[in-house]
Automatic annotation (TrEMBL):
Signal sequence coordinates: none
GO MF entries: anti-sigma factor antagonist activity
Pfam families, per the entry: STAS
Family classification: Belongs to the anti-sigma-factor antagonist family.
InterPro entries: Anti-sigma_ant, STAS_dom, STAS_dom_sf
Record-given protein name: Anti-sigma factor antagonist
Region (Disordered): 1-31
Domain STAS, chain residue ranges per copy: 37-144
Length: 144
């Protein structure tokens, strides 16, 4: 998770200088905020909800992938990606949705919550609504 920050200006030694990547998640971290948006992971019984707000773009997409990976390790019966508060959906964000859906292992099912045109239109234009289980509300996603 870390990256070498560079040589220590005082000693010229670069052997132990490590910095945390901006926005990198820690093992127990359940929420992250960046300049463009936030991601939160909530466990509810045998379900995990990953809520995304703001712009799901090139900056936030890798963080979403980290949270999806963490959620999958919990082996929930249902993984829900709640995009109701997303105000921009870039191709990088859509790529994470596809990868997450294709990598789910039984018995986990993945569902996406999206009601706003800002999110639904790109999913429809790329025909991802044919591949992803998309629901208008969290309650409907839970009900299936």
């Amino acid at each position: 998770m870390g990256s070498v920050a560079g040589m220590d200006a005082g000693t010229g030694d670069d052997s132990d200088t490590v910095a945390k990547e901006p926005g990198a998640t820690e093992p127990g971290e359940t929420e992250i905020a960046t300049e463009t948006g936030t991601i939160a992971l909530e466990r509810q019984d045998d379900r995990v909800v990953v809520r995304v707000t703001g712009a799901l773009d090139l900056a936030l997409a890798p963080r979403l992938q980290q949270f999806v990976d963490r959620a999958a390790r919990l082996h929930p019966a249902l993984l829900v990606l709640d995009l109701t508060e997303v105000d921009f959906l870039a191709s990088a964000g859509m790529a994470v949705l596809v990868k997450a859906n294709r990598n789910q292992v039984a018995p986990t099912q993945m569902r996406v919550v999206a009601a706003d045109r800002v999110v639904l239109r790109p999913l429809q234009m790329t025909r991802l609504t044919d591949e992803l289980a998309v629901y208008p509300t969290l309650a409907e996603a839970f009900a299936g």
